[in-house]
Amino acid sequence: MPSSPHRLSSFVEYPADSPFPLENLPWSIISTKSDHADKRAAVALGGHVVDLAALTSLHHLFDAQSAHPPPFDAATAARLFAQPTLNDYISLPSATHRAFRSFLQHLFSSHCALLRDDPSARHQVLVPRDDVTLHLPVKVGDYTDFCASREHTINAGRIIFNVDDRPLDENWLQLPIAYHGRSSSVVVSGTPITRPCGISKMRVPGAKPHFGPSKVVDYELEVAFIIGGGTEGKPNDLGEPIPLQEAEQRIFGLLIMNDWSARDIQGYEMVPLGPFAGKNFGTTVSPWIVETSALEPFRVPSPAQDPTPLPHLDQRGEGKQWDISLAVDVKASDSDKWTTTTETNLKYLYWTASQMVVHHAACGCNLNAGDMLGSGTISGPASDPNPAACLLEKTWGGRNAFKLEGGGERTYIQDGDTVRMTAQATRADGLTIGFGDCTGQLVSARHAA
């Protein structure tokens, strides 16, 4: 168990470097083998999950007169946590989220006897993580994908246009560019992704458009921001902007996201309206949502922005990112060895999550609890050893193949390959905040005319 004076201590045993300590408590939706249809809310704690629906049956824990009361009664908790999505809970005010998080940290602390000294209750609410199935934690109402990494945008532009010194477009430095994605194809980690079919055209003289399976399937390592209820527990009204000082309160938490991309389909369709079929065939997210409160120890200044953004986006040098290490591993179907293809960090992102929220709502667009904002591909600086957060960059448009640990090589993802994304924030005293895995296997196309 953690021994640092700056660490929380729980009666639930777990290693000091567990990705799911009491300081984390990430959220998901679970079911068990015995009641697979019964989906309900849970948080992770060490090697267990806390079944929050089961917790609500212990009414004495929700006593409003206790020394550390929860922000709602047992009946309200039962209604919130027996649902197959977290949408109703995350739509509550951000102060309520913080209060319930504090309640859970007290309840499972080593100095609280309510569960510590009640083996029957502990058995009821603590379920081994290996015994549960994890589901998509929210019903994603709308999904917007940004392009907030300076390094990725520069690299992709130079690859696509084959111009080694191509600069950033002027508008990219004035606003966080985005497109509207497809929420219906957002899936939880472990869901197979089918190679998409679409229209593409080879970049050679005399080539004609053709329909068929994409030949250039890529991953994009991103972080997704899940919109919550904000300070008032309600969405901004249609026509109502969100000021910069309130924007981060709109974000409930973060998860890992793989923005699967069919580069050949995407490349042919993007002009003049942007990505469509090259993107909407599948977006994989990790099952655990890490609350922004859990990530507060890992705040760092965001990169300097030059030119200074327009006033409604200007953070006046006080912009913040999160110091979260990100990685991608790829494994072929005929191998048991993983090849690390990307190592980067969320702190490199040029535009902040707050600026994304502000820009999204500046026109009067209303953001609802459960909406998802993708960060865009998070590539690192060229000085890092493995900074490319997609294979378009890593192979420089397919020109430079890379070796797999188990033999063979790749330029893009082949049928049967599995892509695994991971993220964690680590402090000097060993505190680790993990996100779980974001994994998907590419399977063969179902149809080609």
Structure summary:
The chain is an alpha+beta fold and 449 residues long.
Describe this structure as you would to a colleague:
There is one protein chain. The chain is of the alpha+beta class. The protein has two domains: 27-135, Fumarylacetoacetase, N-terminal domain (SH3 type barrels); 143-443, Alpha-Beta Complex (Fumarylacetoacetate hydrolase, domain 2). It is 17% helix and 25% strand. It has eleven helices and 27 strands. The chain has helices at 52-55, 74-81, 87-90, 94-107, 113-116, 119-125, 150-161, 244-247, 263-269, 353-362, 391-394; strands at 27-32, 40-45, 48-51, 126-128, 132-135, 143-146, 178-180, 186-188, 193-194, 197-200, 210-213, 217-218, 221-227, 251-259, 261-262, 283-285, 290-291, 299-301, 320-322, 325-331, 339-345, 372-374, 402-403, 409-410, 418-426, 432-434, 438-443. The strands form seven sheets. Strands 6, 7, 8, 13, 14, 16, 17 and 22 form an eight-stranded mixed beta sheet that branches. Strands 9, 20, 21, 25, 26 and 27 form a six-stranded mixed beta sheet that branches. Strand 1 (27-32) and strand 2 form a beta hairpin. Its cofactor is Mg(2+); Ca(2+). It catalyses: 4-fumarylacetoacetate + H2O = acetoacetate + fumarate + H(+). Mg(2+) binds at residues 259, 279, 283.
Question: Which SSEs are present, and which pair or pack?
Answer:
Blueprint: E1 27-32, E2 40-45, E3 48-51, H1 52-55, H2 74-81, H3 87-90, H4 94-107, H5 113-116, H6 119-125, E4 126-128, E5 132-135, E6 143-146, H7 150-161, E7 178-180, E8 186-188, E9 193-194, E10 197-200, E11 210-213, E12 217-218, E13 221-227, H8 244-247, E14 251-259, E15 261-262, H9 263-269, E16 283-285, E17 290-291, E18 299-301, E19 320-322, E20 325-331, E21 339-345, H10 353-362, E22 372-374, H11 391-394, E23 402-403, E24 409-410, E25 418-426, E26 432-434, E27 438-443
Parallel strand pairs: 6-22, 8-16, 9-27
Antiparallel strand pairs: 1-2, 1-5, 2-3, 3-4, 6-7, 10-11, 12-15, 13-14, 13-22, 14-16, 14-17, 18-19, 20-21, 20-25, 23-24, 25-26, 25-27
